[in-house]
Amino acid sequence: MFATEFEYKKASSISEAIQLLSSNEGAKILAGGHSLLPMMKLRLARPTMVIDIGGIEEMRGISVENGTLRIGALTTHAQIADSHVVQEAAGILWETAYGIGDPQVRNRGTIGGNVSHADPASDLPTVLTVVDAKFTIQGQGGITRRGSRTVSAGDFFVGPFTTVLAENEVLTAIEIPVLAENQKAEYAKMAHPATSFAVVGAGVVLTVDNNNVCTAARVAVGGLTPTPTRGPSVEAALVGKELTDENIAAATALIDGDLGSDILGDIFASAEYRRAMAAIELKHAIFHATGLAHH
Amino acid sequence: MNIQVTVNGKSHEKEVDPRLLLVHFLREDLGLTGTKIGCDTSQCGACVVKMDGVTVKSCTCLAVQADGSEITTIEGIATNGELHPVQEAFWEKHGLQCGYCTAGMIMTTVELLEKNPDPSEDQVREGLKGNICRCTGYQNIVRAVLAAAEAQRS
Prior knowledge:
The complex is a heterodimer.
Chain A lengths: L6 E4 L3 H10 L3 E4 L5 H6 L7 E4 L9 E4 L2 E5 L4 H5 L2 H6 L1 H8 L4 H6 L2 H7 L6 H7 L3 E5 L9 E5 H4 E3 L2 E2 L6 E8 L5 E9 L6 E11 L5 E9 L6 E2 L1 H7 L6 H8 L2 H4 L12 H20 L5
Parallel strand pairs in A: 1-3, 2-3
Antiparallel strand pairs in A: 4-5, 5-10, 6-7, 6-10, 8-9, 11-12, 12-13, 13-14
Chain B lengths: L1 E6 L2 E6 L6 H8 L18 E4 L2 E4 L12 E3 L12 H8 L9 H14 L5 H7 L11 H15 L1
Helix pairs in contact in B: 2-5
């Protein structure tokens, strides 16, 4: 399959990429190419110009500073899955990265490209929402005041394949608060058997005291909703409770009320089925997070 | 656009259309037809080659993205006419039937064993997740990978 014709530009810096984006209507950013190229081959995307940012070294890398894990947008899933720094700072992301696609997809696909593509079936939007990641966006004027802005993962995703990124903006880095010792975080998914994409995915970050009582909770589900969906009813029901099988089951059942009416369904898994699986995957995530996994 | 790519140790300079995929560049411009095109949607792994040390699906990479890189294809892993230990093991254990997936399977296995020289059967199956075989049921392929691992360790 061949994409429609386009002009190819290789950007050597973030500012050059933004300059090219700003001055060429219909231009698209190419990172690892594992979202954009398949779209172009199917001709669902027909950019007139492709701006390859793959060579911009300043957009790569993993570091921890002042309690924040910083990952350059061009960092590949394989680099995240192979990183002990990520494993220690945010094990939930480390494990999720390993569950994406297959080895070759992980070798090329990037964290920034993945979230900018905003596929509802992707794992990272849900995980980055639940850990309250902050996205650094660079641009030129307009809403990107002084050249850059920061957007929470929870505000970044607008709809399927749609984000708050303006036409002249590039996502350059993702920052995640390092998880504390008493925070348990886990992501569980029902994976599509062929692609590993999430039919339903669920992420949790629970703060647990010495008596196994949950003192703070963030939960989010994805795959079945147009964008990652937080579960405020579940969170409220978990806080102050001991994390027993019964309390977890009662709290996770409340996710149904947080999902809204816009549930995705396809030939593989109906909307009704996915809705029913949301509480199940959430329960799995909490069981794994709290070490209650016994099935 | 003009690109320079080193393939199996040999440097090539070619003028290519930006939309040309790496797999077509290898097969049609360089005549290296060992790399196959299967699904053309980055799922089957028939087109796996090594680019700058890691395996990639060459149907999901533009030739222009490979500019300046070093690529190894199935044609480039034997040395002086001696099969690579992974090739040898696939032959020995008959890790194939029609052979269409084999080049990709072998390239993935080469990287898998570089990262983990002593994989368990589960790790082999996990590592081959991105390579689909429609003939064998994978049993002999997994045996071949485990045999290659053993041969390379000794």
